[in-house]
User: Fold Flagellar basal body rod protein FlgB from Marinomonas pollencensis.
Amino acid sequence: MAISFNQAFAGHDKMLEFRSERASVLANNIANADTPNYKARDISFDSMFNNEQSKLRLASDNDRHIQGNSTMGESSGLLYRNPSQPSLDGNTVDMQREQAEYAQNSMQFDTSFMFLDRKISGLKKALTGN
Assistant:
């Protein structure tokens, strides 16, 4: 019986990819906190999910069926953050919010990594019998 890693990891590997990408976006916001006219960006799981879902093609078994092409979700899922306190120089980075979001994302990354590690440990035990 073949092992499908896509099913075995239960999506935890994809969640790690999302958390890594979000950490990069948040770190970029923090690095540009003093850049005039810089617009803070963020990425949400919903936007990433909708972006990936829109790439799927629907199968049809009849030529008269409507084709499942979609133009939604063409962007990478990056969204602009609405500033709570706009700056005079046009920068929308709120340093306290960015640091809090980064810390929360870091904890969620650690949690996803722990789940993935447990999945892999379980697979090792199943394969070796220990």
Residues 11-57+66-128 form one domain.
